[in-house]
Amino acid sequence: xxxxxxxxxxxxxxxxxxxxxxxxxxxxxxxxxxxxxxxxxxxxxxxxxxxxxxxxxxxxxxxxxxxxxxxxxxxxxxxxxxxxxxxxxxxxxxxxxxxxxxxxxxxxxxxxxxxxxxxxxxxxxxxxxxxxxxxxxxxxxxxxxxxxx
Length: 149
What we know:
This protein has 1 helix and 9 strands, in the order H-E-E-E-E-E-E-E-E-E.
C-alpha cells in the first residue's frame, strides 16, 4: 500500500517536473479607484498662492493603455480588437482587446480622473488585456473594468 502511494507520488512529481517553471502570471484588474491624494506645486508664480479647489475624495479609473516599454518611452499601442454591442437596457457596451504575444516588453498603464499619477505594471507572461466600457442609452462611456490575463 505504501509502495503504491510512493509510486503515485513519484509519478505526479515526474509530471509536474515537466511543466514550464514559469507558469502563467495571475490575472489582474486595474483598481476601480484610488484614494484621495495630495498634489503639490513646486513653484508658485509671483503674486499667486496655491489652494485646493473641490478636492476629489477618490480618483476613478478613466483610462487604460498598453505601452511598449517603460512609461518614459511614451510608445502606446493600439488595441487589436474593438467590439460594440447593446445591453438588455439599450445601453452601449464597448470592449477593447490587446493580444500581447506580438509585443516584446508591454506594460499596462491604468489612468485615473483628476490626477497625473498612473499605475504601471509589466505584462511579461500575459497573453491579453481587455477594457470593458458601458454607457446608458443616452450617456457617455465609462470604464467598467480593465484587466489582463
